[in-house]
Structure to design on (183 residues):
């Protein structure tokens, strides 16, 4: 086993990497949100509602960029097996609705709710926050992922090939039957 287990996740022996999808790495999202809020709050002239809006927008943009835009992995030790997959599709071996994915799905929703509350439900902030939320949530849904779409296409292709074979066999019979009929 190339990984050492520890309470917060696992470390790859070869590369010394901490797996980013284990529960120990969940805290970084809260830390980033708090750091962004503090950063935008200390800028002179920015009010509390605007700082929450900018925190929400920055986190959503960074989350989309990290989990859905960048493809592949930064290290080349897998012979290109993950080159066409983004981090969300690589996470938890492509399984949907694991605890990590549920957590990462809930963080933008909670941040949206907090941001909407502190912007006093202003229509402009609300509209932009909803658009940012949808831009991050929709790519996380299972039917949007590359692997899921590939499986659907493969299943449809196999189904159409099998039904085509059934039609041809039904209309023409098997070659053995035709040979016996000709005799």
């Amino acid at each position: 086993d190339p990984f050492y287990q520890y309470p917060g996740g696992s470390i790859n022996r070869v590369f010394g990497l901490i797996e980013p999808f284990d529960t120990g790495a969940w805290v970084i999202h809260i830390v980033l949100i708090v750091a962004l809020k503090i950063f935008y709050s200390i800028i002179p002239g920015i009010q509390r509602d605007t700082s929450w809006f900018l925190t929400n927008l920055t986190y959503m943009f960074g989350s989309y960029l990290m989990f859905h835009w960048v493809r592949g992995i930064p290290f080349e030790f897998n012979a290109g097996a993950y080159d066409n997959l983004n981090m969300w599709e690589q996470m938890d071996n492509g399984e949907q609705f694991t605890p990590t994915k549920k957590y990462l799905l809930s963080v933008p929703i909670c941040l949206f709710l907090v941001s909407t509350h502190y912007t006093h439900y202003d229509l402009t902030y609300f509209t932009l926050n909803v658009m940012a939320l949808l831009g991050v949530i929709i790519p996380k849904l299972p039917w949007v992922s590359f692997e899921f779409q590939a499986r659907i296409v493969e299943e449809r292709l196999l189904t159409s090939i099998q039904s085509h074979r059934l039609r041809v066999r039904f209309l023409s019979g098997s070659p053995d039957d035709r040979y016996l009929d000709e005799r």
User: Anything to note?
Assistant: DSSP finds seven helices and two strands in the chain. Confidence is low (pLDDT under 50) at residues 1-18, 164-170. The first strand starts at residue 3 and ends at 6. The helical segments are 27-42, 48-69, 87-90, 99-118, 123-137, 146-172, 175-182.
